[in-house]
Amino acid sequence: MLPTANRYSIMWEGVGPTRARRLGRALPSEALVIPLYILLSLVPHIARAQQPPTSDAQAQQASPQQSASSSGAQTSAHAKPSPDYALDNPVLEQADEERNITYMQSHLTFKYNHDEYDGGANGDLVQVDWLQSFGPSSRLAAGIELPFMHFYGGNGEPSGNGLGDIKLEFRGMLSKGERFEQAAGFEITVPSASNDLVGEGETVIKLVWGFSTQVTPHTLLSGEVGYNKAVQTRHGLPGINNIEPGLILTQAFAKRLGGYLDWDTYYDFNASEYAQTLRVGFDVELDGTEKCSLSPYFQFPLNHFTRITEIKNTVGIELSYNF
Known about the structure:
Helices cover about 20% and strands about 45% of the residues. The protein is an alpha+beta fold.
């Protein structure tokens, strides 16, 4: 999700009636909606096309003795995730896990990132994320995000720090196959910030649906569409009201190393503009038990509207422990 700690409200207050003249030209809606619709329509077909054909010649050459002796091994192999499926590869699943609605593994994540904003301001974020899976086959999960922020004002703006807006989330797996899975979720962000410099002062509801599908055994494509709506605000400014699609392409380079590209965007109905960012990151498995991972990343805006209302750039790192 695009960072929105306090920059949105600051820009509304600072720009006022002249804001429309300062905004960059956004991409027309058709340029984004049509490609996304085509891509999402083709995703299941791409996944099915990747299924390797069975080898009849090898099956005919196997002797009865070999079949009998290997029956126990085949049963055991079927009981375990196949390494040929991208959805069973921890490097692919855990990369950018906090922004993937289909990831249901219980985990604790410590995050740090440094943001730079238009006008010389910057900020530091330290965040703790906890997600707990439960239910049949761990197909349900609930979580909480606790952000702690320090905002450094630029051009005479005040500075502040403290607890940011807490987010609560619930997600559930709708369907799960060997090459395709989909999930839906519900999030609520509460105005718990210590002051207006590190929070929005809004109660925001988000509804989200997403998918993950295998492109190749070492490549995973994930996407989601969410709608964010402020149902209560503590100020007289328009509350958050946007639709937020996104795509994540993840590639495994080695057994414990992967990388990803995360394109995130939202259409702001209040400003009639798009905000778009691209995140480039890596995921490194720190141990052979697939429990600890480290993920450094860099994020930058793709248009002028994002630069003046969100970020100029972000660098960060995440440390996750799965249990």
